[in-house]
C-alpha cells in the first residue's frame, strides 16, 4: 500500500505512477492467462464438492487494481447455490454483490478487475467448470447458455435502435441457432415472449424498446435470459427500477419459469421484501465478505450478526408503529484500506474488547446457519455475559431515571 501524503487520503503524482506501474505488471500477467488458446480441459475442469449444487463459490477473491490502490471488492466469499433453489444475496450498496455475480459470468471490467484467487465451481451435469481459471475462449460458450443474467435497468441492456424481435432472435441464433432457419428462430422468439406473459407477442416483436413500458422491457430481458434454458439465472436487482405491482408480477414470473426449466436463481438485491418472497437461502454481505448465511428461516427468524439484525430493524413492518425508521449508524470502511479487525466494528453497538483483534472466523450456529462474529465464539462467552449484565444494569438505571 502506498504511503499517504500529509493530507490524509491524497496520493502524490509519483505515488499514483508507481501504483499504476505495479498494477499493469500484475494485471498483464493475469490477462495473458485468460487469453491463452487451446488450454487443456484438465486445467479448468473440476468436481463439485456436492453434486446437488449448481454453483459453489469457494474462498473467492475479486479485486480491482485502480490508480488509488487495490479495491478488495470480494474478499474471501464462500457459498453454494443448490440446484432448483433461489439464493438471495443481500447487503448495502457497494458491498460486492454485483462483483460476486459478475465473477461467475467472467464479466468483471478487465484488465483492472480480476479474479485473484479462489474457485467458482459450475455444475453443467456432465462436466463441472472452475470459472476462476476457465479461459476466455471456453467461457464464451458457457456465458448465455449455462449462465445468464437479468440486469437492473432493462433500457440500458436493450439496444434502442433494433426491434425487440430482432434482438431476441439474435440471442437464440447465437446460443441455440445451429441448423435452424430464420423462420424457426422467429417462432422460438414468439414462444419466448409468450412464455413471459407478453400477450400481443407478434406485435411487440416489431416494436422498438422505447415503445414498451418498464415492466414489459424487463419481461423481454427475462425472455432473452431464459431463451436457452440456463442452469443458473443471475438476477441483479431485477425489480429495483419497477413499481411495486409490476415488481410482484415479475418476481412471480421468475419463480414460475425457474421451476419450469429447473434452473437455480442467484437473486441480488438490497430489498429484504424481495428476498422474503423469493429466497430459499440467504447470504448477507458486508464490505466484500459474508457476515451471515443460512436458510431464509434462519435469517428472518434468527438473525444473529449485528449487521443482519440492524438490516431487519431498518425495514418497515405493517402494523408496527415507529416514530422514526431505524438506520445503522456510521459508514463502511474505505475499501482500499480495510482494517484487520471486524469490518463492522466501528458501527457495531454490541462490540466487545476482543473485536479489536483479528477478523472473526465463521461460526456454525446450526448445520445451515453460519455467522462471523465474536458474540457467538465460545472462547469469549464470559465477555459476552459480562457485556450483557452491563447493558442490563444500564437499561435499569435508564429506566429508573
Ligand atoms: N469497475 C470498477 N472499478 C473499481 N472499483 C469497482 C468497480 N466496480 C465495482 N467496484 C467496487 O467494488 C465494490 C463492490 O461493488 P459492487 O459489487 O458493484 O457493489 P453492490 O453490492 O452494490 O453490487 C465497491 O466498493 C465498488 O466501488
Ligand atoms: S465481531 Fe464484534 S464488532 Fe464485529 S459484529 Fe460481532 S460484536 Fe460487532
Ligand atoms: Mg450492484
Amino- and carboxy-terminal Cα gap: 50 Å
Q: Which fold name fills CATH's third level, the topology of the largest domain? A: Rossmann fold
Assign the structural class, choosing from mainly alpha, mainly beta, alpha/beta, alpha+beta, or little secondary structure. alpha/beta
Main CATH class of the largest domain: Alpha Beta
CATH superfamily of the largest domain: P-loop containing nucleotide triphosphate hydrolases
Bound molecules: adenosine-5'-diphosphate, iron/sulfur cluster, magnesium ion
- Sheet-strand content, in percent, reads 15-25%
The total count of helices amounts to 13
Please state the CA-atom Rg, rounded to the nearest Å: 23 Å
Q: What average pLDDT do the residues reach?
A: 88
**Helical content class:** 25-40%
Q: Give the neighbour order of strands across the main sheet.
A: 7-8-9-4-10-11-13-12
Please identify, by name, the CATH architecture of the largest domain: 3-Layer(aba) Sandwich
How is the main sheet built?
A: 8 strands, mixed
Number of structurally distinct domains:
2
Amino acid at each position: 500500500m502506498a504511503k499517504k501524503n500529509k493530507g490524509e487520503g491524497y496520493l502524490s503524482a509519483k505515488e499514483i505512477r508507481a501504483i499504476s506501474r505495479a498494477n499493469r505488471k500484475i494485471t498483464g500477467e493475469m490477462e495473458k492467462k485468460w487469453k491463452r488458446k487451446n488450454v487443456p480441459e484438465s486445467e479448468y475442469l473440476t468436481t463439485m464438492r456436492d453434486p446437488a449444487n449448481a454453483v459453489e463459490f469457494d474462498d473467492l477473491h475479486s479485486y480491482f487494481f485502480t490508480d488509488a490502490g487495490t479495491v478488495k471488492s470480494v474478499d474471501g466469499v464462500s457459498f453454494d447455490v443448490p440446484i432448483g433453489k433461489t439464493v438471495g444475496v443481500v447487503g448495502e450498496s457497494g458491498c460486492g454483490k454485483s462483483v460476486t455475480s459478475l465473477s461467475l459470468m467472467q464479466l468483471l471490467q478487465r484488465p483492472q478487475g480480476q479474479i485473484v484467487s479462489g474457485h467458482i465451481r459450475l455444475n453443467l451435469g456432465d462436466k463441472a467448470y472452475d470459472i476462476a481459471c476457465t479461459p476466455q475462449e471456453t467461457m464464451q460458450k458457457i456465458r448465455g447458455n449455462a449462465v445468464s443474467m437479468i440486469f437492473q435497468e432493462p433500457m440500458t441492456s436493450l439496444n434502442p435502435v433494433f426491434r425487440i424481435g430482432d434482438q431476441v432472435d439474435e440471442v437464440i441464433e447465437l446460443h441455440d441457432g445451429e441448423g435452424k432457419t430464420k423462420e424457426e428462430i422467429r417462432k422460438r422468439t414468439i414462444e419466448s415472449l409468450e412464455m413471459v406473459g407478453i400477450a400481443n407477442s407478434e406485435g411487440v416483436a416489431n416494436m422498438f424498446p422505447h415503445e414498451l413500458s418498464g415492466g414489459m422491457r424487463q419481461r423481454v430481458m427475462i425472455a432473452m435470459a431464459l431463451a436457452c434454458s440456463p442452469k443458473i439465472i443471475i438476477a441483479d436487482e431485477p425489480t429495483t427500477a419497477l413499481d411495486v405491482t409490476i415488481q410482484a408480477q415479475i418476481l412471480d414470473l421468475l419463480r414460475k419459469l425457474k421451476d419450469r426449466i429447473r434452473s437455480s436463481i442467484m437473486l441480488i438485491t438490497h430489498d429484504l421484501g424481495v428476498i422474503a418472497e423469493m429466497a430459499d437461502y440467504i447470504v448477507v454481505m458486508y464490505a466484500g465478505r459474508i457476515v451471515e448465511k443460512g436458510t431464509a428461516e434462519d435469517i428472518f427468524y434468527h438473525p444473529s450478526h449485528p449487521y443482519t439484525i440492524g438490516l431487519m430493524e431498518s425495514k418497515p413492518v405493517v402494523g408496527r408503529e415507529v416514530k422514526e425508521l431505524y438506520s445503522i449508524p456510521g459508514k463502511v470502511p474505505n475499501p482500499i484500506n480495510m482494517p484487520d479487525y471486524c469490518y463492522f466494528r466501528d458501527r457495531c453497538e454490541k462490540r466487545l474488547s476482543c473485536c479489536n483483534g483479528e477478523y472473526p472466523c465463521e461460526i456454525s450456529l446450526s448445520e445451515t446457519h453460519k455467522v462471523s462474529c465474536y458474540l457467538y465464539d465460545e472462547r469469549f462467552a464470559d465477555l459476552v455475559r459480562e457485556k450483557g449484565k452491563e447493558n442490563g444494569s444500564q437499561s435499569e438505571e435508564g429506566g429508573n431515571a
